[in-house]
Amino acid sequence: MDYGVNWNAPWLAPIRRLGEQVAGAPDWRVELNLRAAQLNIRNHAGLPLSFVLQEDLPSGVSYEAHIGATGNVPTRSNLHDFFNALVWLTFPRIKVELNALQAAQIAQLGIGKSRGPARDAATLFDENAAFLVVVDNAAGHSLVDALRSHQWQDVFVARRAQFQAQVGVFLFGHAMMEKLVNPYKAITAHSLVCWVEADFQSLSDVQKLARLDVTMARQLDRAQGGIELLPSVFSPLPVLGVPTWWHDQNAEFYADQEVFRPMRLRKS
């Protein structure tokens, strides 16, 4: 498989090694299934996960409900679904929690023109999320507050070194990854904060991904006191503004208000 992916791009760091290996396999779908079996990935019903042909999805059955009922993930031969499969193998616990939420919403509300806010949020998460992994201290909270209030110059210019020391950005959304194969400045993720202890910085890359998977999955699990997933929980993040993720990141770059938009004032 060769879709012109630059595996050295910084935003692909979480899936880089796996992506290069699977893309180079004689049959990438077979390789994905071998790895899913090795990891013993199962859906929320305990069924083993398998990546199958899109044609295996029965007519009239939703994609999410099919995964929930069978463990089979319909997977087309395109970059969008390839990235989705890599995310399943990298963050399996999070994907299982998301699928459980989506399947439950479909069972409750059916498949209509309106998804409902919870399913809308789950779709945004699945397709377009980025995790802001932030050290749980005063500096970290200050940076998150500034990001949520769109103080881009403060965070990315004035406090750039502090941001790099306190915050890690991990892409999760597979549609976001696909867009970034041909990057352009306006690409914006729906970000969620994951608070971590200072020891997170000293973990290996593999350990960081595993802890993030566990932590964010727990954050989605309402039975464990997790958040109610609604569109309002996300904060916009222009991803090419992340320090070192693009060239010429000077004050002028961040002054582009078509991308780094000021906070909208709420109408009283």
TrEMBL record:
It holds the Pfam family DUF3025. InterPro entries: DUF3025. This is DUF3025 domain-containing protein. It comes from Sapientia aquatica.
